[in-house]
């Protein structure tokens, strides 16, 4: 199948067109390739005076390159996530002796994640639909690694930085493998002692990882500080703002997003838009505000046009998302608009992919 592209002036863009290439500005990805153009996207481009035209897919062929190369359904992508989770477990098991070969295995695994999970749409949909369940180490490691890589690209990191970020994300919860599973899998409230043991996993992981020969120090530091928070309320060092490494800031967002999208022994997963709202709220002091904005602006594009189930039982289609009130989108049901801002009794219960 041939894929046709054409350059289009920003002032001639129409809702429903799809971007054929990333739109970049100031070293950052403003809107990702494959995203369907919305009214908000058009306004954003119009406000960017340095962008005059963008590349879109022509009307006669609106498929993205990813869709043409490989059409993967949710089940197929989930199978890949499961296989990668098994690979992660084997790597962690083999890291007891901390040899040079260990980091080579991590690098090889990072390349595999990038290759197998190249479709941003598939990654987002799978994580929103499945999360990482009760697997708080290996499936969580894969989900956080995939999301961190995606966010790193949206932010505009270099290829080398993306690689180091991926190594950090893969290893961020390695310390949990050294914690008693009775504590990890405890369904009830942790005791103070157990809670402190759980909070020690970044230090445990760091103390292991820093001994790997020839590993960039930024990786170990990111593992140590991925639970630090902008206001100093994080752990283990209580760092604030600029003292937190950029990799840690990115991993923190991916970590929270996967956790709230997952069923855990201690909590039920959040509704899809509630998960986005948590990232929005945490951006006000806990998580990096700029990176959260980039994350939400981009990831919400992958919700557009999808079907959702409301708590009322109605099935609707997402028409528009307001980043400033992200949990209450504009929907289309039976040919009529339904604005959740005006119906506080309704909420999106689940996505239907």
UniProtKB/TrEMBL annotation:
<dbReference type="InterPro" id="IPR003607">
    <property type="entry name" value="HD/PDEase_dom"/>
</dbReference>
<protein>
    <submittedName>
        <fullName>HD-GYP domain-containing protein (C-di-GMP phosphodiesterase class II)</fullName>
    </submittedName>
</protein>
<dbReference type="InterPro" id="IPR037522">
    <property type="entry name" value="HD_GYP_dom"/>
</dbReference>
<feature type="domain" description="HD-GYP">
    <location>
        <begin position="115"/>
        <end position="311"/>
    </location>
</feature>
<dbReference type="Pfam" id="PF13487">
    <property type="entry name" value="HD_5"/>
</dbReference>
